[in-house]
Amino acid sequence: MHESEPARRVRVTGPDRHARPRPQPRTGDIDDETPLGGVYLGSLLREQLLLAARILGLLALTVGSLPLVFYVVPGLDDVRVLGVPVAWLLLGGLVYPWLAWLGWRYVLRAERNEHDFAELMGEVER
Questions:
Q1: How crowded is residue 62: how many other Cβ atoms within 10 Å of its Cβ?
Q2: Which pTM was predicted?
Q3: Are 36 and 43 in contact (CB under 8 A)?
Q4: Which of 63, 73, 111, 114 is the most buried (most CB within 10 A)?
Q5: Has residue 1 been placed in a domain?
């Protein structure tokens, strides 16, 4: 280094004091592709698929049936609440919070399934 060049600054930090170390589940059965690992992984995938099917079914029954409701009850076009058509209130005011709630429930349940799976793997391999 020449005298004309300033010394490079290096920032030295320690470990994050607020982070809790999370125990990592040992997944040897899955990593080694053993038959037992295949059963465990198949069980997790099946549970996640059933969860997605339940959420999509609930979505289809609720939001998907709205066009049928508007078709079966043609007088609903003329109904207004505070000057706003009921169809707009349903589609713009209720559907989006419903979608957000369904998405939130899906994520919570999927994470719980994965957590249960990780606990199972930790218990089995001990």
A1: 14
A2: 0.63
A3: no
A4: 63
A5: no
Structure tokens at 20: 């809790």
Token pair in block for residue 32:
């080694």
Longest dimension (CA), the chain: 87
Tokens standing for residue 77: 């076009």
The Cα-based distances of 53 to 20, 49, 88, 89, 111 in angstroms read: 35, 6, 28, 27, 16
Q: What residue type is assigned to position 35 of the chain?
A: P
**Res 57: pLDDT:** 95
pLDDT in tens, 32-56: 566 776 777 888 889 999 999 999 9
Domain contains 12: no
Residue 23 placed within a domain:
no
pLDDT averaged over every residue in the chain:
80
> Are 23 and 122 a contacting pair, CB within 8 Å?
yes
Counts of helices then strands in the chain (DSSP H, E): 5, 2
User: How many Å apart are CA 44 and CA 29, to the nearest integer?
Assistant: 14
- The answer to whether residue 80 scores a pLDDT higher than 90 is no
Element housing 81 (H / E): strand 80-81
